[in-house]
Amino acid sequence: MTSYNPKKVFRAVSNELMKEFFAKNGHELEVDWTKSGKQYIGEIFRQFISLPENECGKLETLMHEVHDVASDDDNIATIRKESELRGIVLSDDFWEWKNYDIAMLIYLKHENMWDTIVRFAHADRLPKRSWTARIGLPKEKADFSEENNDELKKAITGYMHQKEGRGKYCYIEYFERGKELEYYFVYLNNFTGLAMHWEKNDEFKLLPNRRSFEIVFVFNRKEGKLELNSQGDRNLKETLLMTFAKVILGIDAELNPDEKPAYNIGCLKDRNFVFKFGPEDGISRVLVQTLTLSIPGCPGSRREYEEKQSNLYDAMDREINKENLPLSICKVEKAKLYFKLEGRGRSNSQTIKISRNSCDVKNKPEKIRALLEKCLKESGLYAA
C-alpha cells in the first residue's frame, strides 16, 4: 500500500467529488473546481491547512480512510459484495470509476456502509503471521447478545489485565461480512506512556498518553472456523480463542488439536455441575474435594481450593472477583473427587485424582473401577 498524504487524495479524487466532500463536512472552499494540475491541488491544500485544527484533523481522518480503501482492489470487491448484500443498487458505470472515486462515493452516498468497509479493509491488511485459526466448531451463527458481549468484555479484560497489566477497559465492535463471516473488533487500553503534544496550537508539552491495542476475532459459521489476530505468545492466543468459544459459541473445550486432553475437567469449576449416577450404580454421593485453578500464561497464578472447613466454591467466590476475572478464563489443572459408595464396607469411601491427561481410577479394584469410570463417563468427564 502506498503511503498517505492529503495531496495524493486531492489528485486522485475527481473535482466534483472533492467539492462535495468538503461541502458535506461544512466547508465551502473558494476553489475553481473546473481546473486541474499543480495550481489547483496547491490551492485546495492551502485552504485545507488553513481550516481550524480540529476540523482539519477530522477531514484528514476521513481522507486517510478513503486512501486506505482505494489503495487495494480487494477492497473494491468488498464494496461490490457488501452493497449487493444490503440491496444497494449501484449502476454498471459506477464500477468504471477510479478506485478513489468509488471509495469517496460510498462515503458520500452510503455512509451507513462506510464504517463497515473501513473495518474490513483494516482487517484485510493485518499481518498474516499474526493470525491463528481453529476448525471443527459448530456451523451456526454465533450468539452475540448484549449479555454475551458484556461477558466477553469481562473475560478478555480480566485475563489481559492479570497477564500483562494492561487491557482493563474494553470496547467491542461487531460486523457481519456476507452470509458466512462474523467480525469482532476488540479494543483495549494499552500501557500509559508519554507523548509529545501541541496544546492551544503553539504550546508544546510532554503528556501521559494511553493508546489502545486491538484483538480481532473472525468466525466463519459455514466452515465452523474461528480465527484470531493478536500479538502475544501461544498461551495468550489459545486462551483468547477458548474464551471466545466458551462465551460466544457456548463451547467449553480445548481448541488446540495437538493438546487435546483425555479428560474434560474444566466443568468442575462450575459449582452447579452435576455428577450423573443413580441408586443402581451403588453411588450415593460425589464431591469435589480439591480443585486447582490457574490463569493460562500467568506464572504464579496457580491456586488450590480444598473442601475442609468450608465449601471450596464459597472460598473461590470470596477470592475471585468474577467482575474482573471471569471463571471462563481460569483453567482447571487438577482435582480430587470423593465418592460415597453403598454396601462396600471399608471400601465405601473412594477418592481419585484427575487432571487433563491422567486419572488414577485405573489403580482401583476392578469392580470399583467400573463403577467410578461409568460415573465419570456419563458425567461427561471423558473427552470424546
Would you mind describing this structure in some detail?
With 384 residues, the protein is of the alpha+beta class. The chain has three domains: 120 residues, no CATH class; 132 residues, no CATH class; 113 residues, no CATH class. Helix content is 36%, strand content 23%. The strands form two sheets. A five-stranded antiparallel beta sheet has the order 1-5-4-3-2. A four-stranded antiparallel beta sheet has the order 7-6-8-9, covered by helices on one side. A hairpin with a 3-residue loop joins strand 2 and strand 3. The longest helix is centred in the middle third of the chain and has 19 residues. It is elongated. It starts with 5 loop residues before the first helix and ends in a 6-residue tail after the last helix.
**What value does the Rg take, in angstroms?**
29 Å
Task: Please state roughly what percent of the residues sit in beta strands, choosing from under 5%, 5-15%, 15-25%, 25-35%, 35-45% or over 45%.
Answer: 15-25%
Provide the residue-averaged pLDDT.
Answer: 88
The helix tally amounts to 11
Q: Quaternary arrangement of the chains shown? A: single chain
Structural class: alpha+beta
The span between the termini is: 47 Å
Into which percent range does the helicity of residues fall? 25-40%
The biggest sheet amounts to: 5 strands, antiparallel
Strand order of the largest sheet: 1-5-4-3-2
Number of domains: 3
**Unreliable sequence segments:** none
